[in-house]
TrEMBL record:
Binding site for a divalent metal cation 1: H6, H8, E92, D201
NCBIfam families xref list: YchF/TatD family DNA exonuclease
GO CC entries: cytosol
InterPro entries, per the entry: DNase_TatD-rel_CS, Metal_Hydrolase, TatD-like, TatD/YcfH-like
Keyword terms: Hydrolase, Metal-binding
Residues noted as binding a divalent metal cation 2 in the record, renumbered to the chain: H128, H151
GO molecular function, one term: hydrolase activity, acting on ester bonds
The protein's name: Hydrolase TatD
């Protein structure tokens, strides 16, 4: 059994066939899908899915590339959403120096504001970091963040050690399976299994066998199989450990069991 800890079924590419996508996920052993918000609209949609689908949970947050022109009333709306049932984290939030769509000052201010929201509500953070390693770590250290996950990890071993030293989890997605990504597989080998989560980040980053296609939670198994090989453990052990990690971080309870066929 597996948990997709970072999915975007709340995004438009899944509007037409969401039921079929969830059904396929169940067939591969997925017992929970956490749909992650990137702005107020997708956060609200994540909550709607969580209320309709037993398999789904939600997070709410403003992605760093969506932080321009936010007002106090927007952050209040976010806080209201964060207190809805089945919301398990604040995210995805963080810093993105790659796309350069929003000033760094605004991104930092929004990141810090959402960190404070997570602290007030006792929720973990799902952290987006792209080309902003030192700045991200500096904020997390200053705010003494101990509860969260560095989503879609792509850094080197030194960055991984810094993330783990804060007490955070590290999450791997389909890019772990890419043929030219040996450096990331080397990092994954060194990280304790007890600090790893699995994710798809769908519809983005499909695993190697599905390159060029829309990613979906049912493809998580490819990443799990690659990680099990890297760690030298059985797929069952990997599933049990990463599932427990996700349950511990996000406080997931009464998860549905995979039905026997």
């Amino acid at each position: 059994m597996f948990i997709d800890t970072h999915s975007h079924l709340n995004f438009s590419p899944f509007e037409a066939d969401i039921k079929e996508v969830i059904s396929r996920a169940k067939e591969t052993g997925i017992i929970a899908i956490i749909n992650v918000g990137a702005d107020l609209s997708t956060s609200k949609r994540a909550i709607e899915l969580a209320q309709k689908e037993d398999l789904c949970y939600a997070t709410v947050g403003i992605h760093p590339t969506s932080t321009n022109n936010l007002q106090d009333k927007d952050y209040q709306k976010l806080e209201d959403l964060a207190q809805k049932k089945k919301v398990v984290a604040i995210g995805e939030v963080g810093l993105d120096w790659f796309h350069n769509q929003v000033s760094r000052k605004i991104q930092k201010e929004s990141f810090e504001r959402q960190i404070l929201l997570a602290e007030r509500l006792g929720l973990p953070l799902i952290i987006h970091n792209r080309d902003a390693n030192s700045e991200t770590l500096a904020i997390l250290k200053e705010k003494k963040i101990r509860k969260g996950v560095m989503h879609c990890f792509s850094g080197d071993i030194n960055f991984a050690i810094s993330v783990l030293s804060l007490g955070l989890y590290i999450s791997f997605t389909g890019n772990l399976t890419y043929k030219k990504n040996e450096s990331l597989r080397t990092v994954a080998k060194e990280i304790p299994l007890g600090k790893i989560l699995l994710e798809t980040d769908c519809p983005y980053l499909p695993p190697q066998p599905k390159r060029g296609k829309r990613n979906e939670p049912g493809f998580l198994l490819y990443t799990a199989e690659e990680l099990a090989k890297i760690k030298g453990v059985s797929l069952q052990e990997l599933g049990e450990t990463t599932t427990k990690n996700a349950q511990d971080l996000f406080k997931l309870q009464r998860l549905p069991r995979r039905q026997k066929t």
